[in-house]
Design a protein that fits this description.
Layout lengths: L2 E9 L7 E10 L2 E11 L2 E8 L4 H26 L4 E8 L6 E2 L5 H5 L5 H10 L3 H13 L4 H16 L5 H12 L3 H15 L8 H23 L14
Helix pairs in contact: 4-5, 4-8, 5-6, 5-7, 5-8
C-alpha cells in the first residue's frame, strides 16, 4: 500500500520528549481510509501513513488528521509536564520522491486579502485590539482542528471592533450592516462552532474547515476595508452582499 511520510519536531526541542503509536485507523466517508503510525524520539517526529490512493486531496487530508492526532498526544505530555509543547511538521515524502517542504500557506486564503502586510500592521498599530482577531484567524493555519471555534471568536471580536453596544444582537446587526454580510453567511460558522465551544467532540470535516477559514478571512478583509475608509459602510456594487 502506498505510504505518505511526514517529518517534523516538537518545540521546545531541548526537552527531548518521546512517544509512539502504531497502526491507528482513520476514515472519512468522502476520502480514502488510511492507517498511520507515529514516533517521537527526543522531540524529532516521524509519521507514516499507509493509504489506498494518493492525490493532493489525500495528502491534505492525511496531514490534517495526523497533525491533529499527534498534537493531541503532545498536549497530553505537556499537561503532565506542565509545559507548552508545539508540533511542527516540516516536510512530506511521497512514493518515489524525495522529502519536500510542506506548503503550509493557502493561496486561496491569500487571495482573499486585499492588503499588504504593512497596511495591516499600520491599522493594528493604530488599534491594538485588532491583534486578537488576527491571532485567532492565523492560529487556524497552525491548528486547523480549532478552526470552528477560533474563526467564530475572531468574528465576534470584529463585532466589538465595529460596535461597543452592550446588546449582543445590536453588535451583530452593526457588523452585518456595515460590512454588507447576510445573517446566513455568518450562521454557517456559528452553527459549526456551537458544539465545540461547549465542550463537544463531534467529527470535523476538512471541507467545512476550508470554508470556515475562507469566511473568516473574508470577514476580516471586509472589516479592514471598512476601517481603511474611515469606518464608512461598505455597499453595493463594490461590495456585494455575502
Amino acid at each position: 500500500m502506498p505510504q505518505i511520510e511526514f517529518i517534523g519536531y516538537v518545540e521546545p526541542r531541548f526537552l527531548k520528549i518521546n512517544g509512539h503509536g502504531e497502526n491507528i485507523p482513520q476514515s472519512d466517508a468522502n476520502l480514502p481510509s488510511f492507517v498511520f503510525s507515529y514516533r517521537i524520539e527526543k522531540a524529532e517526529v516521524r509519521i507514516i501513513c499507509e493509504i489506498s490512493a494518493i492525490d493532493e486531496l489525500a495528502v491534505n487530508y492525511t496531514h490534517l488528521v495526523v497533525y491533529s492526532y499527534v498534537a493531541s498526544v503532545i498536549n497530553c505530555l505537556g499537561f503532565a509536564a506542565a509545559e507548552g509543547f508545539r508540533l511542527i511538521l516540516e516536510s512530506c515524502i511521497l512514493p518515489g520522491k524525495d522529502a519536500a517542504p510542506l506548503q503550509s500557506g493557502s493561496p486561496t486564503l491569500k487571495a482573499l486579502c486585499s492588503f499588504t502586510s504593512q497596511e495591516i500592521l499600520d491599522m493594528m498599530t493604530a488599534d491594538r485590539r485588532i491583534a486578537k482577531s488576527l491571532s485567532d484567524l492565523t492560529e487556524t493555519r497552525n491548528n486547523p482542528m480549532d478552526s470552528y471555534v477560533n474563526i467564530q471568536r475572531a468574528i465576534e471580536g470584529i463585532c466589538r471592533l465595529i460596535s461597543d453596544d452592550d446588546d449582543r444582537s445590536k453588535r451583530w446587526e452593526a457588523l452585518r450592516e456595515n460590512l454588507n454580510i447576510s445573517r446566513p453567511y455568518l450562521q454557517f460558522v456559528s452553527k459549526l462552532s456551537t458544539e465545540w465551544r461547549h465542550g463537544g467532540t463531534a467529527p470535523i470535516s476538512m471541507f467545512d474547515v476550508a470554508e470556515v477559514q475562507a469566511r473568516g478571512w473574508t470577514v476580516m478583509n471586509r472589516f479592514l476595508e471598512f476601517r481603511k475608509r474611515g469606518n464608512v459602510k461598505l455597499e453595493e456594487p463594490e461590495f456585494r452582499q455575502l
